């Protein structure tokens, strides 16, 4: 007689300790329903058909011996043999049928769920294997899920199909790879209220950054409709980041976002069709806006932090989580439909820092989202569908429209993966991370741009954007053991302008960011001149006007666009290094560089020598740019006050005179950035001889100095380094330049002010780094690629001085 108490368990009866009984997914749902519903997290109710029920079904059908005959001599590397045996195994399990008492238990529980949610209830039927969602193996997407199931007959059939999916080709192969015994793994089924995200949106979120393992952010992706498209990589979703430390401090802001294309959405199928779902095109108006509001992003972040905190308490250490969310289009509420331990980035901890460097250049065939930070190369092999998987050879680069779990046998032998569709949380991204190979997803045109059989190099080493290059581009791998690297007394900081590199670069041993340049953010993320955004009516070119309209379509006006985009770029860098100082230099474009921005030529004069022209502090209070500077100040105010990133210090470039300094500080105070208020420090670039000569007086205005050795050298020697005919005279190591630097350092020390150097010199010349240490500079800011070598050199010099 079977113990029917072990056939069905309601979520409220389950905890995370019940993995052997109901699998990882259902155990987690039960744990959350029990423990987190009281904390305000909405979890759809449901019940689990237990792993015991799976075994009971096979016992009653006497199917075990037959399954052994099919699977015992399997060759998992033979794709055809795997497909044949997998189909036979599924047929055995589906054919076993559900014992009558098990059917009765399922239908009785289904009736109770209908009483709770009403006759219109539809359910999701989800697999939950007992070797699933473990800390070291995700088993993501190995078994099947059935959505929008209604009616008793459909429910029972979906359960039979779900049990049979324990032996999908992908699941069989994955278990072999992970060393799991097919006959010691069982399948439980979760039957839960279907959240009507077909009428709204859904997605995936992680309590860390999936590419770098950075644990101080919540990473959220979302798209319209049911969540399968995001998981499978059929759409490029919207992306959002929320910073955990400042969220805990009470600040509420999205620090980073990306608008995905979201071309299709999965909805419920209607009419006579075998499938319960279908995809439909998303109207352009919906595609061009985010699928959820900032308030909803922040609510999801709150959910994520609560879930992570709960599971971390259980584990006794921080436990990053991988979660699926759904918004119900009927009640407008956000639900968590799955949570499991994150199994890739959180496992990659250690003292060895691995950095990939592309050592050449070439034609870029396509671009997309970078998954990981590695580089791979090989012959490109386009695989249109599962039927062509046997054509793929080990070491090739897999090129596809998208991938599914059925493709995993060939994915694990690829040198890299490139897809047309998908975002950072799609199937191809998840598996490539797990396998440790680079992937570029969401390229849109990869299958057209890459010729089948050609040699390509796939680089994910340049930040968020992954690139596929034509040909064999050389690359190198630098591995550094950080465990024994001491920290020098001299602060070693970083020069950084690209927010895409912030989460990766933060892993280097550093004391913060000594120079965060606004120019890169304006150029790459804003693209338009601030005055053109404020006064588009002054832009005469019709095409440029249309481009300005496109850029600002999701914002109230051009000013809001500039403020939010700039603040999110700076906020990303500040969050990555929080709470270490991040010194942000206000814009230092020259007039010819400003003019190259969208609409810029209508607001900039033509100068014979822009290097010593209308730039830096002189611009900020001038009528021609005063409104633009106000936008910059508003963005920095938002970073500090709305995002809570008080580690940001501000710096004024190219301040020629004391009067200019006073006027700029007065203007900043008017815009809500008063020096000393709420701990705000304002530095000045020391790059003009007058800054050195009058350093005692400049010290009364500013909190610190950052020596710009490039411009200081040009102005001390009277040489234009960009002029080929005299550039041989440009040398930061000149005795006169070094004397200027020493005078600046001594003057700063004399006045109790910080001194640093952010120019190229210590990155290029070890002897300059040594000179700076010997004169007692407080910090030097280096390019990321020279940081480790220079740090070692500084340690040696400091040891000699002792």
Report on this model:
- The chain contains 30 helices and 30 strands.
- The radius of gyration is 30 Å and the shape is elongated.
- Strand 12 and strand 13 (334-341) form a beta hairpin.
- The strands form six sheets. The chain has an eight-stranded parallel beta barrel, surrounded by five helices. Strands 15-19-18-17-16-20-21 form a seven-stranded mixed β-barrel.
- With 802 residues, it is of the alpha/beta class.
- 37% of the residues lie in helices and 20% in strands.
Summarize the structure.
With 802 residues, the chain is of the alpha/beta class. The protein has 4 domains: 4-194, Dna Ligase, domain 1, CATH 3.30.1490; 198-347, D-amino Acid Aminotransferase, Chain A, domain 1 (2-Layer Sandwich), CATH 3.30.470.20; 352-480, Phosphohistidine domain (Glucose Oxidase, domain 1, 3-Layer(bba) Sandwich), CATH 3.50.30; 485-801, Phosphoenolpyruvate-binding domains (TIM Barrel).
